[in-house]
Amino acid sequence: MPRKSAASTRRGKQARAKNVILLGAPGSGKGTLAKRLVNAEGLVHISTGDLLREAVKNNTALGKKAQEYMAAGKLVPDSLIIDLMNERLQKADCQQGFILDGFPRTVPQAEALDELLKKLNMNIDKVMHLSVDIDTVVGRMAGRMSCPKCGAVYHRTNIPPQKEGFCDQDGTALVERADDREETVRARFNVYLTQTKPLIDLYEKRGQLVTLDGSISPEATLERSLQVIAK
Question: How far apart are the first and last CA of the chain?
Answer without folding.
Answer: 27
